[in-house]
Automatic annotation (TrEMBL):
This is SalK. Pfam families: HTH_67. InterPro entries: HTH_67 (IPR054058).
Amino acid sequence: MKPSPARNLWTATEPLHAVVYFAPEPAAAAKDVGLRGWWMGYFAGRAAPLGPIGPEPVTSMFFGFAPGMVARALPDAWTFASPDDVLRTRVEAVEAALARLLGPDTVDELVTLLEQAVAACHFDARPLAAAWSAVPRPDRPLARLWLATAVLREHRGDGHVLAAVASGLTGLETTLTHLATGATTREQVQRARGWTDEEWSAATANLVDRGLIDAGGLTPAGAEIRRTVEETTDRLAAAPLEALGPEGVDRVLELATPLSRRVIDRGGVPIPNPMGAKRP
């Protein structure tokens, strides 16, 4: 099936955002500000615009993580560093990472287009994207670039959660049906999401009982659910594309694709990875 324009936009821009999860600068910044361990930095950094939030709403919004994994990081993170300090140092660190990976290329036009797309986002029932949209816009181009990609990816991600829940899938079940497409592997995902073997097996058995997966992967019914989830995700992510128009979307792809390739080729984002970002 041919990728949709919404999927193409995500593929072209996600590596520019995903630097925050793989480059050394954000991890070092989280450590320097007082956070304990990489995963505490991940959960606190991604949730920082929401304030000193606890594990239950973060588990709900992040959707694919085991509750116990989130609870090991939050709310303890806020005893070591404030959300404001975590957010400030995170943006500064990813800006430094992008400067190192991208070099001196001008990104002003791409930033303008992405911020135009962000301005068109709808945030109803999208708490994570709404929180990131409220972060004050920096005056530095690479920081603005990253913040725009953060809002757009969380906007799409919140919509993906809505689509999966509407299709009757839990976070782990959504992950398992994604794995059943062959897009990634259990080894790449299970440890990164914190699920025990027992939880993994129980969710797998439930999907088998529902006729959604079998030993060969997705059943026809499972493939239909995955198609529905992906199509709904794209539909819920349509507003930014409509604001850009076809020519604007094409221009974003033209500008972002070589930058994302450079990030990947220079080691900023590994391929494959748990979130499924690809080399555009």
